[in-house]
Amino acid sequence: MIHSPIERRIATRVVADLLAVGYAVSVDNGVDIELRKSRDPEAIGKALAGTDADWLHAHGKDGKACGWVLLAYGNGTDLVSDYTTNLADALAGAEALANKLDG
Protein backbone atom coordinates (compact mmCIF):
# COMPACT_ATOMS: atom_id res chain seq x y z
CA MET A 1 0.00 0.00 0.00
CA ILE A 2 1.14 3.55 -0.59
CA HIS A 3 2.38 4.66 2.80
CA SER A 4 2.81 8.38 2.29
CA PRO A 5 1.82 11.37 0.19
CA ILE A 6 5.42 11.41 -1.06
CA GLU A 7 5.04 7.90 -2.50
CA ARG A 8 1.75 8.93 -4.13
CA ARG A 9 3.43 11.93 -5.77
CA ILE A 10 6.32 9.86 -7.08
CA ALA A 11 4.06 7.04 -8.32
CA THR A 12 1.83 9.58 -10.07
CA ARG A 13 4.89 11.13 -11.72
CA VAL A 14 6.20 7.73 -12.87
CA VAL A 15 2.87 7.00 -14.54
CA ALA A 16 2.64 10.47 -16.09
CA ASP A 17 6.19 10.23 -17.43
CA LEU A 18 5.59 6.81 -19.01
CA LEU A 19 2.35 7.98 -20.60
CA ALA A 20 3.94 11.22 -21.83
CA VAL A 21 6.41 9.34 -24.01
CA GLY A 22 3.69 7.15 -25.46
CA TYR A 23 3.75 3.98 -23.40
CA ALA A 24 0.67 2.11 -22.28
CA VAL A 25 0.97 0.72 -18.75
CA SER A 26 0.00 -2.59 -17.21
CA VAL A 27 -0.09 -2.91 -13.41
CA ASP A 28 1.10 -6.25 -11.99
CA ASN A 29 0.93 -6.51 -8.20
CA GLY A 30 2.79 -9.81 -8.04
CA VAL A 31 -0.45 -11.74 -7.60
CA ASP A 32 -2.65 -10.44 -10.40
CA ILE A 33 -2.42 -8.12 -13.35
CA GLU A 34 -4.75 -5.41 -12.08
CA LEU A 35 -4.84 -3.43 -15.32
CA ARG A 36 -3.66 -4.16 -18.84
CA LYS A 37 -2.19 -1.74 -21.38
CA SER A 38 -3.93 1.38 -20.13
CA ARG A 39 -3.30 4.98 -21.11
CA ASP A 40 -5.71 6.30 -18.47
CA PRO A 41 -3.72 7.84 -15.59
CA GLU A 42 -6.69 7.74 -13.22
CA ALA A 43 -7.33 4.03 -13.84
CA ILE A 44 -3.63 3.26 -13.44
CA GLY A 45 -3.49 5.22 -10.18
CA LYS A 46 -6.47 3.30 -8.81
CA ALA A 47 -4.83 -0.02 -9.71
CA LEU A 48 -1.67 0.78 -7.74
CA ALA A 49 -0.78 -0.26 -4.20
CA GLY A 50 -3.07 -3.23 -3.66
CA THR A 51 0.00 -5.06 -2.32
CA ASP A 52 3.44 -4.01 -1.07
CA ALA A 53 4.85 -3.73 -4.59
CA ASP A 54 3.78 -3.17 -8.19
CA TRP A 55 5.51 -3.86 -11.46
CA LEU A 56 4.50 -1.32 -14.08
CA HIS A 57 5.01 -2.86 -17.49
CA ALA A 58 5.50 -0.35 -20.30
CA HIS A 59 4.08 -1.27 -23.70
CA GLY A 60 5.01 0.40 -26.97
CA LYS A 61 2.60 1.49 -29.67
CA ASP A 62 2.67 -2.05 -31.06
CA GLY A 63 1.37 -3.34 -27.70
CA LYS A 64 4.51 -5.30 -26.91
CA ALA A 65 6.06 -5.02 -23.46
CA CYS A 66 9.31 -3.12 -23.66
CA GLY A 67 10.30 -2.48 -20.04
CA TRP A 68 9.17 -2.35 -16.44
CA VAL A 69 9.39 -0.29 -13.26
CA LEU A 70 9.24 -1.84 -9.77
CA LEU A 71 7.51 0.29 -7.14
CA ALA A 72 8.22 -0.98 -3.61
CA TYR A 73 5.92 0.74 -1.12
CA GLY A 74 7.14 1.74 2.33
CA ASN A 75 10.44 3.08 1.01
CA GLY A 76 9.45 6.75 0.79
CA THR A 77 11.50 8.58 -1.81
CA ASP A 78 13.11 5.26 -2.80
CA LEU A 79 9.74 4.05 -4.10
CA VAL A 80 11.22 3.28 -7.52
CA SER A 81 13.17 0.22 -6.50
CA ASP A 82 14.31 -0.95 -9.93
CA TYR A 83 13.58 -0.55 -13.63
CA THR A 84 14.83 -1.66 -17.00
CA THR A 85 17.56 0.67 -18.19
CA ASN A 86 15.79 1.47 -21.46
CA LEU A 87 13.21 3.45 -19.42
CA ALA A 88 15.81 5.65 -17.68
CA ASP A 89 15.19 8.68 -19.91
CA ALA A 90 11.41 8.36 -19.52
CA LEU A 91 11.78 8.21 -15.73
CA ALA A 92 14.13 11.19 -15.40
CA GLY A 93 11.33 13.47 -14.17
CA ALA A 94 10.22 11.00 -11.51
CA GLU A 95 13.81 10.53 -10.39
CA ALA A 96 14.33 14.28 -10.16
CA LEU A 97 11.14 14.61 -8.10
CA ALA A 98 12.23 11.85 -5.72
CA ASN A 99 15.64 13.50 -5.28
CA LYS A 100 14.01 16.89 -4.62
CA LEU A 101 11.62 15.41 -2.04
CA ASP A 102 14.50 13.55 -0.40
CA GLY A 103 16.48 16.72 -0.13
Notes on the structure:
Helix 1 (5-20) runs antiparallel to helix 3 (92-102). This protein is globular. The chain is an alpha+beta fold and 103 residues long. It has a five-stranded antiparallel beta sheet, covered by helices on one side. It has helices at 5-20, 41-47, 92-102; strands at 24-28, 33-38, 53-59, 65-72, 80-83. The two termini are 23 Å apart. It is built from three helices and five strands.
Brief overview, please?
The protein has 103 residues and is an alpha+beta fold.
Silhouette: globular
Extended strand count: 5
Average predicted local confidence, pLDDT? 96
Q: H/E element string?
A: HEEHEEEH
The residue ranges in which pLDDT falls below 50 over 5 or more consecutive positions are none
Q: What structural class results from the helix and strand content? A: alpha+beta
Helix content: 25-40%
**Cα-atom Rg, whole angstroms?**
12 Å
**N-to-C CA distance:** 23 Å
Q: Record the strand order, biggest sheet.
A: 2-1-3-4-5
Range of strand content: 25-35%
State the helix count. 3
List the helices and strands and how they pair.
Blueprint (H helix, E strand, L loop, with lengths): L4 H16 L3 E5 L4 E6 L2 H7 L5 E7 L5 E8 L7 E4 L8 H11 L1
Antiparallel strand pairs: 1-2, 1-3, 3-4, 4-5
Helix pairs in contact: 1-3
Descriptive labels:
single chain; 103 residues; alpha+beta; 3 helices; globular
